[in-house]
Each structure stands twice: as structure tokens, then as C-alpha cells.
Input
Amino acid sequence: MMFVHQKKKRSTSEQGMAMVVALLALLLLSTVVAGMMVMSTTETSISANFRDEQTAFFAARAGLEETRDRMRKTATDSLNASLPTALPGAPSSVLYVTNPLPGETVSPANTTGKKNKKTHSDDEICKHLKKCPNAGYSTNGSASTSYAAKQPLAWKWVRIMVKANAAATGPAGIASVDGTTNANRVCWNGINEVVTAAATCGADAPVYQITALAVTPSGARRMVEYEETLNVNVPVVAAIYAKNGIDTGQALNVTGNTEAGCSANSTYGAASGTSTVTTPGGGNVTGSPAGTVNNYGWSINVPALINGLVSGATDITTTPGTTKDSSTPPNYTIPTASLGTVPSGNNGTPITYVTPDLYVPGSSPAVYNTLTLGGAKGGVTGYGVLIVRGNLVLDASPTIDYYGLIVVQGNLTIRSSSSSPVNPLIHGAIIVGGSFSAPMSNMNGSVSIRQNACMVQNSIGAQFYKTVAQRELIY
Output
């Protein structure tokens, strides 16, 4: 039997389906790949933009930190002498520190437009003042090569100006410190910001607004602002302010009336925090509202105050001529001490000196050993802050000529080892954590201690500035 095989005829309607399915699959796969590529590119762009934004932010912070450090009197390339003193808008009331790249022009006070990207014009200041920046009230400084990073940073300028309170007639955007709109100067009293109508902050510390703009090569822009004040604010209660008793002796002239040239208020001549003031010389202590005051109250944490002042201080026992005994800790004697250059007016560079810790181990209540200064030719001269972490004996012979702040953790004694005529002077303030005495009945002359809160502020100007507020500005 023969079988005949018939070839089945393929349906023409099914021809090419495999290719269509393959093309659809390829299209779908291509779409997925393209989407992933777009997402990857987008993520890369977002990351790059975020990186640029962060680069600009931290560059602005770097500009602020350099400027904040250079505000110190003793800083490398110090800006202290150029810091504005007038309220913003007055002549030379704004200081710009610029940081252009090679071949770049950075002119924040450019007046050709409110926002000139080529010269990085400071248009944000228009929110603070009634007019945009111009050379009439701005001065310029330059970034310091001593602070420069190996790779140039992207900050363009930092603006420094005295902080002012809100003004009723001024532009919006300035916060009021005390709820008023008087446009007065803002100061720091050691606890918070306060407003004063005076031309200076007197015994309080000034507050500065420092603002930085950074711009990356790709155009990312960030602006950050600090409010800065002195690291330590020392309340000047009296020319001599001691926790325990004060005995001014018979050859001591003390005044709390502020010296000429300082706008700070007058104070007591001598104030005892928890005891009394004795004036066996029959008076010689003047001040306002009185020459002396008993049991004034004592709120100063002397160790904390010292800790705030010792940053960068010089160990006084490294002074040439220092001797010490065999006790633990040693008693130190420095017959003559030049603790910085005595200033002419308010000029000069203050220096902070500090002793080692003179606390006698295991003593309770605390017992301290002693630093003795003076008694030899040349005496004691200087300008700045003298910190004694123990007892201090100041020998007035042949002279004391000191400007600034003296802080003693223990007791302070002023004596004279000679009857020769001398007329030493201390300009500033003395804070004593123990008692004060001046047994100088043999002295042919007198020692004068004159309250000068401005000189105290000048002397601590070498300290680091601290940030009391910081913010990023959206402009």
C-alpha cells in the first residue's frame, strides 16, 4: 500500500511574527536601557550639582573662618586695625576681604548693577542698607597667603561690618535684638546681645556680622553669615574687684572713674564680693556711685574665666631671670618683667601671660603658692592680660607700668621693697579670687590703679573671636 505525504501549506498570516516579537522585545529592552541611562545621567548631574553646592558652602565657611581668625590683634596678617567702628552706611563702615582667582576681578562694591556676576557684586547688602554698596563706605583687604589652601578655594569675598539693630526707616530683613527699631549698635554683655545708643560698646564687646560669598566655576553660589564677638567678656565692676576682703593700705590711689579716652561708664574704685573694703590711708579711693562697696556679691567663676583667657597664652615662667624654689608647686620670682610693649594711647599689641597651676596638691580649702613680680631695675611693665593661677605679689619698686587686665586666682599683694620715690601705674582692672592687700607704709610715693574698661577690652582683643550666631542667607 502506498502512502502519499502531502505538504501542509503554511498560513501566510503567520509569516514574520518572530521578527515582530523580536523587534518589540528589542524596543522594550532599548527603552529600559535608555531609561536607565537617563536616570544614571540625572543622578550624576544631581550628585555633581550637590557636590558643587557643598563645595561652595564649605568654601564660604572657609572664608569666614580665615577672616574670623584674622580679626585677632595677634593673628598672622591681622585685620584688627582695619575692623569697622562706625555703623553700616557711614564712611569706611564696611570692610571687604576679597579672594580672586589669578586673572579674576572681584569687586563686591561694584555699582554698575545690583548683581554683576563677573565681579561678584554684593547685592545682598542692599537688604541691610538703604543703598547698594559703593566705595563711599567700603574698604578692601585681601585674602592671606598664610591661610590659603593648596587648591584655591571658591570663596570670593567676606564682608565685615558692625551689627546694627533694626531701623524703622531702613529696609526690611534686619532682625531687632531688643524689640525696638532704633538702628543702634549691638554689643555683647557676656550673656546675650544688647543694644546701646553710645558710639562704642564701652565695657561690653562689639558684635560684628561677617558674611561670605562663594561661587564655584560651574556657577554654584552659597552665602553664609556669622555673628562674632570677643571670646571672653570681662565685667568691669571696679578698678579692684576681689571676692574676699580688700585693704588698700596707705600708699594706694584707686579710682573707678574711667580714664580719659574711654567711653565706658565709671565704676567703684574697690569692690569686695563677700567682705569689706578697708582704706587705712584715709580715703584715696574714688569712683561712681562710690569709691568703695562692701558685700557687692560675687558671681565670677575665676577658673572658668582663666580657661577662657589662656588660649595662646605665654608661660610667664619662661621670662628671662625667673627663679623658683623647691616647694611643690614651686614659688616663682621674676625680679624684672617686660610683659609686652607699653602702648602709646590705645596702640600696641597685647600679650597674654599665664603662670603654671600654683595650687598646693591636697589642700582644702585651696592653698596656692606665689608668683613674685618686680623689685629690680626695670620693674614690671607690659600690656595685655596677666593670669596668675595662684597668689601674686607685685613689688612696686622701682616701678609698675601695666595696661590691661590682671586676674589672680588666689590672693594679691602689692608691696614695696624700697622706700625710694616711685609712682607706679596700673591702667585697666584687677580681678582677685581671694583677698587684696597693699602693705606699703614704708613707701615714699604712691601706687595708682585706674579703671579703664576700654583698655581691658583692648587687652583681650588678642583672644579668638567666638561665633554667637550663624546662618545661611538665601538671596
Observations:
- The first helix runs from residue 17 to 70.
- Helices lie at 17-70, 302-309, 453-459.
- The two ends are 100 Å apart (CA to CA).
